């Protein structure tokens, strides 16, 4: 099997895919975005030098590192390795206030680092691009204000945020939704509070923060209750520096998994990818549909499960003719829903996604953009306020598809181009760099010569 080497290729303008095409080869992906964000933020308040290998190459995670550096924390980078010299809980050091931070397109950056800023002895303003300025912040502002944080935002609670750090008090916060970003924000603020901070969510969201905090020396209590999933920490702990390895990003792997499943004769191996159970809903869902996915070389790194995947082209079908993705499972695979829509066009039966209203407030309105992309390629899709339904299998035709500047839409419809008849062109395809700058290079390697072309305009 051919090994595809990673190369950061910052593509511009339009991506052209000549379909249909199979994919074959072996890849290793850059580190998980969600884990990289958290590792960098916690390392910035640890008491010493942390070394993080496998750090994500995404523009989002670079935004987090840029913010940390502007907070006076030394950061060194080289080829997937990041060294951060933490100065302790109160170690942020800025020459002028408010210090101005730029989160770019990263909702993870602004929502999670706000928890650290709320308890730091500085004043900061954090802002982002036009897309981020449309992302709601009330969900983090409310619990932080309950902890005593001083935060100013627009009247509709959108960025920019002006945060004046102060001593915080611990709270018990019952979140109305399962959200790893809200949870992490509250827990990071809780590191500055004196006493126990408890976060309760209606169902488990990604648990990377709970898994990672003990590696930095912070005990975490996690328990299911009649109220929901309950996570508690005690504030005031000095964090220890770490040597930490970030596994490959499963959300990025999802696109190549889909390409392998849908392309007749395809065979792809993905090495060293994260298999955290709160992230593997995508794999579990595909396996229930009949996907041929094998997991091997299973191991753990700092509490995170890692393994290798082998994916073969598969006939996918809904048992009984209908299947639904909804409820608590949505939080487990929210990032993968755009590519699930593409997969659904080839599934025998009706696949319905519900309870996914959160997609309306991502980098784009992902329900609307998914619907538009499927229809542009000649597919049929029913749109709901909280999701969509697709009856398959369908024949897709090559078309010009707008990415709307959304990295997951761009990558999802690039995969759709591999199963469509004819030429598909993805506008503004360079936005894939928000999460995976290597995407076009890896896709081209797996698909072979002449299938994937970049048109610079």
Describe the strand arrangement of the main beta sheet, using strand numbers.
Answer: 22-23-1-24
For the sheet with most strands, the description reads: 4 strands, mixed
Instruction: Please tally the β strands and state the result.
Output: 24
CATH topology group of the largest domain: UDP-n-acetylglucosamine1-carboxyvinyl-transferase, Chain
Radius of gyration: 21 Å
Uncertain segments of ≥5 residues (pLDDT<50)? Answer: none
Helical segment count: 13
The CATH superfamily name of the largest domain is Enolpyruvate transferase domain
CATH first level of the largest domain: Alpha Beta
Going by helix content, strand content and strand pairing, the class is alpha/beta
Mean pLDDT: 94
Distance between the termini: 35 Å
Overall structural domain count: 2
The outline comes out as globular
Summarize the amount of helix as a percent range. Answer: 25-40%
Kindly describe this structure.
The relative contact order is 0.16. The chain has 457 residues and is an alpha/beta fold. It has 13 helices and 24 strands. 28% of the residues lie in helices and 28% in strands. The strands form six sheets. A four-stranded mixed β-sheet has the order 22-23-1-24. Strand 8 and strand 9 form a beta hairpin. It is globular and about 60 Å long. The longest helix is centred in the first third of the chain and has 13 residues. The chain folds into two domains: 227 residues, UDP-n-acetylglucosamine1-carboxyvinyl-transferase, Chain, CATH 3.65.10.10; 213 residues, UDP-n-acetylglucosamine1-carboxyvinyl-transferase, Chain (Alpha-beta prism). The mean pLDDT is 94.
